[in-house]
From TrEMBL:
Residues 34-61 form a coiled coil. Keywords: Coiled coil, Membrane, Transmembrane, Transmembrane helix. The chain crosses the membrane at residues 17-34. This is Uncharacterized protein.
Length: 247
């Protein structure tokens, strides 16, 4: 009769079990920290890429502000001159200039809006959290929060311009305006000769001057905001360049 002997299994003591547990624990912990480090490096790279993109947006903003400021100053000069000529007793001598200024004023200014492309992408994807520097994060949030104000002011400027246009057609001959247009390339040329206003009614002239005043006042307000915003934009550009070593 065969006798089967069970193999002898040596029991592990507490120390061996503890060492196995410790090795598994360390392996899991190291893996966790490695994953956290990998995510941290990835987040940092994404943060820098977003900031590079935002930096380009801000540089575009400065160019837009410079362009708007130049256009606004030209428009304001023309508005001041047109108001003066309209109120002049011998305005009939300056029909050519009044027609030219009266028509080109509305071509000088575009809607004043800054670039929110990168900020909107970060906000919509939840990536604003990647900006780890508290001061920079606050500055970015405040900068783009102010854009709502600029959009509102831009809308008011458009409304004032529309009101001005409605008044201008009561004063200027539309056929003369049409002849001033050059189609290719698009341009508004000074009129031929010395065309006259279609009315000398004091009330209509006064209405025109009043609406032109409100339009110019809104342009002046927006110009003031643009100049202030340029300083803020430049400071934010410098903060980003310094923080991320970008140019």
């Amino acid at each position: 009769m065969e006798v089967h002997h069970h193999p002898h299994v040596e029991k592990k003591n507490f120390k061996e079990y503890f060492l196995e547990f410790l090795m598994i624990f360390l392996a899991v912990t190291m893996g966790f920290f490695a994953e956290q480090m990998r995510e941290s490096v990835a987040d940092h790279n994404r943060e820098k890429e977003f900031m590079k993109s935002m930096l380009e947006d801000l540089k575009t903003d400065t160019a837009k502000i410079n362009s708007f400021s130049m256009q606004a100053n030209v428009a304001l000069t023309q508005m001041d001159s047109l108001i003066h000529l309209m109120q002049s007793r011998d305005r009939a001598k300056y029909g050519r200039t009044m027609y030219y200024f009266g028509r080109t004023i509305t071509t000088k200014l575009r809607r004043f809006e800054l670039n929110e492309r990168t900020y909107e992408e970060m906000k919509n994807s939840g990536s604003l959290r990647l900006i780890r520097d508290g001061a920079l994060s606050d500055s970015v949030s405040k900068y783009y929060a102010s854009q709502t104000h600029f959009k509102e002011q831009s809308e008011i400027q458009i409304q004032e311009m529309i009101a001005y246009i409605h008044s201008a057609v009561k004063v200027f001959d539309g056929a003369v305006f049409q002849n001033m247009l050059q189609k290719s390339p698009y341009r508004v040329n000074p009129p031929q000769g010395n065309p006259q206003l279609i009315t000398n009614d004091a009330a209509i002239i006064n209405e025109f001057v009043g609406l032109l005043h409100y339009y110019s006042a809104e342009v002046l307000i927006n110009l003031s905001y643009a100049v202030q915003e340029k300083d803020v934009t430049i400071r934010l550009i410098k903060m980003i360049q310094k923080k991320y070593n970008l140019q």
